[in-house]
């Protein structure tokens, strides 16, 4: 009898994993309750090989991009939809120090590979301190992709639209039964809902609220992502997504006036064109204390797995991590230590 897994959560992580399991011929069922403001749906779906103010580039950046290319090209063919946009990022410096620091980063070959230090693009980006171009970047139309792929899996009988009940999970002889179906293992890809999970709520997630705007702005070049404090990503016609805030203390997952004002202030520093705010959204990111994803098996409960914590680099990381995780399930390969749940084993031990 072939192995079959239950994937809990149908966002970027869960769908990327289901795609990889399907490629490997591993049976699965995916369950998701369809939260409208999940971080996967709120996010712009950007992928960027250069990370943060320190402008770091992962040693796996090329492999991540190759896996993303593979997944999204197959998704577009399968779903018959244009979902994947490759577009350079034009990033302006916010001050003189940022411009000066940038020069030092160019000495790193891994950084220089993805960067054009002297772009000549005519754009509407406010760039009095200078700017540079990041290549190997772009975005996935996450809302369309999530909806289309969930619908495809549902038609295949592999997707259930429902809230998962932890009380309905029954262990027997090392396997798990849920809704009268027996599985080799349960894989939790729940995003910020991890806190409700009695099996993995000991993990040191550090949830972060993010707010974004949808604006109408004529005169921008939709072929580029603009970035200065916030990003600006084309959606359709003259509509763009602007984000995002990073809020470590918050009361709920709802949009706020403060979030609106933060985004408007940074947007006005980035472009001088007139714009109209069409909508505002908010969601909770499943980030972790060390900003690394968390993959692996529960320290005591056999065949309970976690695939979570992809954070702001979710779209870039997910396909390659899913490939690694499928190999772990199928062949028993080792999960890279920088994303392994084992690095947080002391949190479980101390809580028992």
Low-confidence stretches: none
Shape field = globular
| Total E-strand runs | 22
**Count of folded domains:** 2
Distance between the termini: 36 Å
Strand content bin: 25-35%
If helices are DSSP runs of H or I spanning 4 or more residues, what is the number of helices?
9
CATH class membership of the largest domain: Alpha Beta
Identify the CATH homologous superfamily of the largest domain.
FAD/NAD(P)-binding domain
Q: Round the Cα radius of gyration to an integer and report it.
A: 21 Å
Name the CATH architecture of the largest domain.
3-Layer(bba) Sandwich
- CATH T-level topology of the largest domain: FAD/NAD(P)-binding domain
Could you describe the largest sheet, including whether it forms a barrel? 8 strands, mixed
Report on this model:
The structure is a single chain. The protein is an alpha+beta fold. Helix content is 29%, strand content 27%. The model has no long low-confidence stretch (mean pLDDT 92). 42% of the residues are buried. A hairpin with a 2-residue loop joins strand 12 and strand 13 (175-178). The protein has 9 helices and 22 strands. It has helices spanning 12-23, 39-42, 61-79, 96-105, 109-112, 142-155, 257-270, 314-331, 345-351, and strands at 4-8, 27-32, 46-47, 50-51, 56-57, 84-86, 89-92, 115-116, 131-134, 138-140, 159-161, 170-172, 175-178, 181-183, 185-188, 208-216, 225-228, 230-236, 239-243, 276-285, 294-297, 304-308. The strands form 5 sheets. An 8-stranded mixed beta sheet has the order 8-9-7-17-18-19-16-20. Strands 11-2-1-15-22-21 form a 6-stranded mixed beta sheet. A 3-stranded antiparallel beta sheet has the order 3-10-6. It has 2 domains: 4-42 and 143-203 and 289-351, FAD/NAD(P)-binding domain (3-Layer(bba) Sandwich), CATH 3.50.50; 89-135 and 208-285, 2-Layer Sandwich (D-Amino Acid Oxidase, Chain A, domain 2). It is globular and about 65 Å long.
């Amino acid at each position: 009898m072939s192995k079959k897994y239950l994937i809990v959560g149908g966002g970027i992580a869960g769908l990327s994993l289901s795609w990889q399991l399907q490629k490997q011929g591993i049976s699965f069922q995916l369950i998701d309750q369809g939260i409208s403001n999940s971080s996967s749906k709120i996010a712009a779906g950007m992928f960027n090989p250069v990370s943060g103010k320190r402008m770091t580039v992962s040693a796996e950046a090329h492999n991540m991009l190759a896996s993303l290319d593979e997944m999204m090209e197959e998704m577009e063919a399968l779903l018959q939809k244009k979902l994947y946009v490759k577009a350079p990022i034009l990033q302006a410096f916010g001050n003189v120090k940022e411009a000066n620091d940038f020069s030092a980063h160019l000495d790193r070959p891994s950084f220089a590979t993805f960067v054009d230090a002297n772009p000549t693009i005519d754009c509407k980006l406010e760039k009095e301190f200078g700017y540079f171009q990041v290549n190997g970047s772009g975005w996935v139309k996450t809302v369309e992709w999530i909806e289309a792929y969930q619908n495809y899996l549902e038609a295949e009988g592999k997707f259930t639209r429902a809230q998962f009940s932890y009380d309905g999970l029954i262990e027997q002889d090392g396997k798990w039964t849920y809704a009268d179906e027996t599985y080799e293992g349960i894989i939790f890809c729940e995003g910020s809902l991890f806190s409700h999970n009695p099996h993995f709520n000991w993990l040191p997630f550090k949830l972060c609220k993010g707010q974004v705007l949808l604006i109408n702005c004529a005169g921008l070049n939709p072929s580029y992502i603009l970035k200065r404090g916030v990003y600006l990503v084309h959606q359709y016609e003259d509509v763009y997504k602007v984000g995002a805030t990073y809020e470590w203390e918050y009361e709920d997952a709802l949009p706020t006036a403060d979030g609106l004002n933060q985004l408007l202030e940074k947007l006005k520093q980035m472009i001088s064109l007139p714009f109209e705010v069409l909508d505002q959204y908010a969601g909770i990111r499943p980030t972790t204390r060390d900003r690394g994803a968390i993959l692996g098996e529960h320290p005591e409960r056999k065949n309970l797995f976690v695939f979570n914590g992809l954070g702001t680099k979710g779209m870039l990381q997910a396909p390659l991590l899913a490939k690694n995780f499928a190999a772990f399930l199928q062949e028993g390969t080792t999960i890279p230590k920088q994303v392994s749940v084992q690095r947080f084993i002391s949190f479980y031990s101390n809580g028992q």
